[in-house]
Amino acid sequence: MSATRYRRFLKLCEEWPRDETKKGRDLGTFLRHKVASAFREGENTQISDPEKCDQMYESLARINGNAYRQRFPRVRDTSFTGVTAEECKVLLSGSMQQTDEEKKGLWKTLMDRFSSKTPEDVPEKAPEK
């Protein structure tokens, strides 16, 4: 029976999308590593709690199949900030390169982006000595 579970998890890993923009923090990659460590012996792995294993698989399969997105559709494709899903994806991808003269933290970047002030309203900093 563990061979069947192993094959189901492998199929799920194949279907789970990878986000190449999130190197080292991609859920698909994390899932693949967890399955590989849980089934070290492949189909011959003895599972201590088969019910928990099946429950975990079913939960991941529902997430991968967008069951909750279909069950609870969103009215708009924006968040409370008004940012679209595509803009959030760009922010989280890490592809936004900061210039050397303007290195700031994530919080400052987000505050500047969502602030209602225009750049003309903000006083310039005095040059540092």
From TrEMBL:
Read off the InterPro entries from this record.
UQCC2 (IPR037698)
Q: An example of a Gene Ontology BP annotation on this entry?
A: mitochondrial respiratory chain complex III assembly
What does the UniProt entry say about where the protein is found?
A: Mitochondrion matrix, Mitochondrion nucleoid
Q: What does the record list as coiled-coil region(s)?
A: none
Q: Name one GO cellular component term.
A: mitochondrial nucleoid
Q: Which UniProt keywords apply?
A: Mitochondrion, Mitochondrion nucleoid, Transit peptide
Q: What is this protein called?
A: Mitochondrial nucleoid factor 1
Q: Which organism is it from?
A: Seriola lalandi dorsalis
